[in-house]
Amino acid sequence: MIQSVPILMYHAVADAPSAATRRLSVTPKSLIEQIAFLADSGYTGMTFSDLASAFEEGAALPERPVVVTFDDGYADFAETAWPILERRGFPATVFVTSGWVADAGSHAAGKPLDRMLTRAQIRGLAAAGVEIGAHSHSHPQLDQLDDATLCEEIRFGRALLEESIGRPVRSIAYPFGYSSPRVRLAARAAGYRCAASVRNLRATPSDNVFMLPRLTIRRSTDEDAFAAIVTGAHGPVLRQERVLTAGWASVRRSRRAAKWVLGHA
């Protein structure tokens, strides 16, 4: 029997998040309860890259593996989320948008949605065992970019993070969860070993390691919904999310095709 693994996707963790991050945020109380559920239910945490490597190598997994990821790189990860995870012995992967880092200086790019991690915090988290992954440089829709801009977004973001933490960055999460065969090939060519999408499905060894699916945890995810998502009984809970994701994929392909036609007219 193929073992499927829940890869959870979080964003901000705050009682009073910014308006822009509220829908995809959770409260500290909710995170405490959710991590307690995982611990009490016998789940073993893995980093995103370690799971991808195990899938590729056919390595044995823990009886109940789970991966906890956070997107964007909000300051509240270091201040609130990591202490909650660390107390329970759960690792985490944080996908950092390099141009949003609080002290990015001349490399600042895009529009941060809330308070962001500093370079010192990112270094400290990496030293504590948190996996630092990339989330592009300015958080664009990668599948809508031309080839040169796409390659620079994923190459430069990785380079800045590696400079900060002093070790290779092996994973990337596509902003908004959007990718395409062209984006995935570019990520592989840039030196990444695996990548995270969304898709709201559990991950399996048969999945492409450059589009491993994650499960969205948001402010409206109550205790029952969280349990259903983690245990795989989430059909009705996430069915609408999957339909919307598929619909947007079709729209994005059409937009990209239209850009190509205009560019070659």
From TrEMBL:
Keywords on record: Carbohydrate metabolism, Glycosidase, Hydrolase, Polysaccharide degradation, Signal, Xylan degradation
Family annotation (SUPFAM superfamilies): Glycoside hydrolase/deacetylase
Xref: PROSITE patterns: NODB (PS51677)
GO molecular-function term, one example from the UniProt record: hydrolase activity, acting on carbon-nitrogen (but not peptide) bonds
Pfam family, one: Polysacc_deac_1
Main location: secreted
Domain NodB homology, residue spans: 64-265
Cellular compartment(s): Secreted
GO biological process, one term: xylan catabolic process
Transmembrane segments: none
GO cellular component, one term: extracellular region
Keyword Hydrolase on entry: yes
Protein's UniProt name: Putative xylanase/chitin deacetylase
Classification of source organism: Bacteria, Bacillati, Actinomycetota, Actinomycetes, Mycobacteriales
